[in-house]
Amino acid sequence: MKKRQRKVRLIRAAIQLVFFIFYPALFSTAFAGVKSVFQAIAAHQQITWNSFLDITGLLLLVTILFGRHFCGYACAFGSLGDAMYELTVFIRQKVFHKKGRHGYPEKAVRILQKVKYILLAFLLLSILTGWYASLQGMSPWDVFSMLTARKLPNVSYKIGIILLVLILIGMCTQERFFCQFLCPMGAVFAMMPILPSALFNRNREKCPSKCGLCRKRCPAHLEIDGDTPLSGECICCHACQVTCPRKNIQIGPKIKNQTNEKKN
């Protein structure tokens, strides 16, 4: 099982590195598409298609068809979060001799996951009211985009720089801290209707008694069932799938109950 976990981690890390190097601004470009729609509404103008909406539309379509694999594999900010968290895990194990993975209690994760929806609503409302312009320099993802483009943000971005540093600290304390709790585009993705064929499913009857490894390993503490109301929070990191000792988790239609079929 460890060999399988290592293989999946390496493949995922390689894909993340490619997107981080060549397409680091995809997630901010996608949100720029959402922003352009609300700016047109605020200005009482006709919504016109633009290059930002090309990216937004493509990523929304990918999410509907395949789940939030963009979040799990292609988002540069998410990849940065993974790197920060894994570095912290390594330091804890090698320096402080603490085993296992750290993070917040499930109840706290559930509450904090709602913050990104509040943040999304706040940003969209600020656009509609014309207040968004006064937020310039406060965006941590704008600062991140500048840094990945090899541009140093000037003093007008000091609040954005401070917020980015605080987010980086948060990334060290909880796996996918920004993606789960603060990403406004993540909130949009989480609200998308995802096709059942793109969700993780398992056959509970094949699960070992009192196992729960998939839930413990999931950074969002999700139950691995396609009909869960929290399925939108799944970032498709595949951690549950590679952790399952019986390979009992798959993406696709719900696994049929083989036991009941044999009885019938």
TrEMBL record:
Pfam families: Fer4_5. The lineage of its organism: Bacteria, Bacillati, Bacillota, Clostridia, Lachnospirales. Residues 222-254 form the 4Fe-4S ferredoxin-type domain. PANTHER family: FERREDOXIN-TYPE PROTEIN NAPH (PTHR30176). Keywords: 4Fe-4S, Electron transport, Iron, Iron-sulfur, Membrane, Metal-binding, Transmembrane, Transmembrane helix, Transport. InterPro entries: 4Fe4S_Fe-S-bd (IPR017896), 4Fe4S_Fe_S_CS (IPR017900), Electron_Trans/Redox (IPR051684). This is Electron transport protein YccM. GO terms for molecular function: 4 iron, 4 sulfur cluster binding; metal ion binding. GO terms for cellular component: plasma membrane. The chain crosses the membrane at residues 48-67, 117-135, 155-174, 181-200. Coiled coil: none annotated.
